[in-house]
Design a protein that fits this description.
This protein is mainly beta and 138 residues long. It has two helices and nine strands. A hairpin with a 2-residue loop joins strand 5 and strand 6. The longest helix is centred in the C-terminal third of the chain and has 13 residues.
């Protein structure tokens, strides 16, 4: 199931569902229901918040991969789509959508107290370091 579900009809983009919590890594996906004029195009989703920008390609079914690397911080993100193709004469064409806003909520881990540390074996500490490297610093 996609975390961010969109629908585009012509150039009108609508948010169907989008509940996202900050700090999520290699989990977020986008699914866009594409109208006929978007079919057969190379479609990209763009996400912007201040100076932070991500883009991820959507496959033929309008879906991104969880490993696309989306890691959104808390705030109001702007999303839009662009689709690239060719007309009957082989000329490059591009269709763009308008923008929708995605509210990304703060993670619950950032507002509370840290859990007490357990005593760990050295091998567990190395796995913990790997997990910390995969997730953003708080």
């Amino acid at each position: 199931m996609a975390n961010i579900e969109l629908r585009v009809r012509g150039q009108r983009l609508l948010m169907v569902r989008g509940y996202v919590v900050a700090g999520t890594v290699r989990y977020l996906t986008i699914k866009a229901a594409l109208s006929e004029d978007w079919q057969g195009r190379e479609v990209w989703a763009y996400l912007e918040f201040g100076d932070k920008k991500y883009k991820t390609q959507l496959n033929g079914n309008g879906e991104s991969k969880p490993r696309a690397g989306l890691n959104l911080s808390a705030g109001k993100w702007s999303i839009y789509l662009m689709g690239y193709g060719k007309d009957a004469d082989g000329n490059e064409t591009c269709i763009t959508s308008d923008r929708v806003t995605l509210n990304v909520y703060p993670t619950g881990a950032s507002g509370g107290e840290q859990l007490p540390a357990d005593e760990e074996e050295p091998e567990d500490l190395s796995r913990q370091a790997e997990r910390k490297a995969a997730c953003p610093a708080r």
